[in-house]
Amino acid sequence: MSITATPVTTVPEEPASQGQGRWIQDWRPEDPVFWAEKGERVARRNLLYSILSEHIGFSVWSMWSVLVLFLGPAYGFDAADKFLLTCVPTLVGSVLRLPYTFAVAKFGGRNWTVFSAALLLVPVGLGALVLEPGVSLGTLLLVASVAGVGGGNFASSMANINAFYPERRKGWALGLNAGGGNLGVAAVQLIGLLVLATAGKDHPRVVLAIYVPLIVLAALGAWWKMDNLAQAKNDKRAMRRVCRDPHTWIMSLLYIGTFGSFIGFGFAFGQVLQVQFKADFDTPIKAAYLTFLGPLLGSLIRPVGGLLADRVGGAKVTFVNFIAMAGSAGIVLLASAQQSLPLFLAGFIALFVFSGLGNGSTYKMIPAIFRAKAAAQVMHGADLEAAGDEARRLSSALIGVAGAIGAFGGVLVNLAFRQSFLETGNGNLAYVAFLAFYAVCFAVTWTVYLRPSSHRLVGV
Q1: Which residues have C-beta within 8 Å of that of residue 316, sequence separation ≥ 6?
Q2: Residues 341 and 286 occupy one common structural domain
Q3: Residue 73 and residue 144 in one domain
Q4: Given 215, 232, 249, which residue is the final one in a domain?
Q5: CA-CA distance, 64 to 54, in Å (whole number)?
Q6: Is pLDDT at 458 greater than 60 in this prediction?
């Protein structure tokens, strides 16, 4: 989804607003004078509150990865049931990413951030209402699915910030926005650990209660401090074009391998530890001590993947990264077969780290693909400015599509774990599946973007 702004010629004393809705009528981030005098300050303020809202959205989206640790024998759910409870919010969140991207231009970035942040009160409130022994699995699945609204926040937040920043600063701004959001997965798991260590395993509602004021703070902050861009618009033509481009589906496959792995492992890790190593993690708090570490490291290293891609090329970083992910999955498989907890933890933490690194490098590949196509068009006589503008619009559209499809990888991860534990009592089948998928990903990366060929896109 592309959000573009139409330049105008005058420089106002302040970005012009309309009424009480804080609609900015004049926004020219590519104008150096406008950006230095007015634009950067406004963009930075919107970025700050966007990160806050997206961070809490990620926390609510992944909240059931923590709440399942509280569902002890009194609830009567087995491991397969709990993997379903972490699967459904992932699925709903991935589906919502596309409409959430459209919503920014239709309703305004500020307005939609306020609404989407306030909407997070619904899954939190429903969870507090039903979460007690005796509740049916169907009821919990319905409530958990509503938490998927938090997954949509990423798409609308990225689309909104994309419109505020000039091309030369988009990578930095979107990297901060995405990394701050991803940290919400680790944050909710740290809060879960705190509650388990203090209130105990019989009080999951405390986790939900902690997030109520944070959600209200995010919504009020967006209401008071953020802005709508009147010139932002949805580029439906770019979306249609990009959906016909083979690179869209190739990059979506690769993003399933990176972001899908990150969010899927983030949802499943605590459960995997409790089921795979029952003797070592016989209480929820023991698993909670470790579950936050992987998502934390994966979130923090995401910008590094982008920086490496800037230096040596996104395809090269992604290719090596998938080899490392396959190797890490192999270590986890070996550790599982030998029941070696230290080796298992080392392999799984490596999976988190490399999935975070790959998040950054695959996102960097997307604009590089369309820049390479634009360069080829210019060599054949196309207008330089028009080709560059088209490349930017198609890149934005592909980021929206890949973000939605990539999140669906989290569903596949949890389904793979569920089926593996149902059939064998351990996660070995899932680890074999992950290893095979990462092998496909590095083979595809090499074949399409690195293998010497007259048809290869140069500079990806």
Answers
A1: 450
A2: yes
A3: yes
A4: 232
A5: 17
A6: yes
| Full domain range(s) for residue 35 | 1-232
**Final residue of a structural domain among 204, 232, 260:** 232
Counted domains in the chain:
2
Does residue 371 share a domain with residue 258? yes
Count CB-CB contacts under 10 A for residue 252.
20
Residue 7: is its pLDDT beyond 50?
Answer: no
Backbone φ and ψ for 24, nearest 5 degrees, come out as -85, 120
Average pLDDT over residues 352-380: 87
Residues in the chain: 460
pLDDT, tens digit (0-9, with 9 covering 90-100), for 156-201: 998 898 889 887 787 778 878 888 999 999 999 999 999 999 999 9
DSSP H or E segment with residue 18: strand 17-18
- Please check the confidence at residue 444 and state whether its pLDDT lies above 90: yes
DSSP letter assigned to residue 3? B
- Compute CA distances 13 → 26, 37, 49, 225, whole Å: 11, 9, 23, 19
Question: Can you tell me the distance from the alpha carbon of 415 to that of 403, in angstroms, rounded to the nearest whole number?
Answer: 20
Find out whether 25 and 230 touch, Cβ atoms under 8 Å. Answer: yes
What percentage of the chain reaches a pLDDT higher than 70? 95
φ/ψ (deg, to 5) at 228: -100, 145
Which residue do the tokens 């009080």 mark? 203
pTM: 0.87
166: Cβ–Cβ under 8 A, 6 or more apart, which residues?
Answer: 29, 30, 35
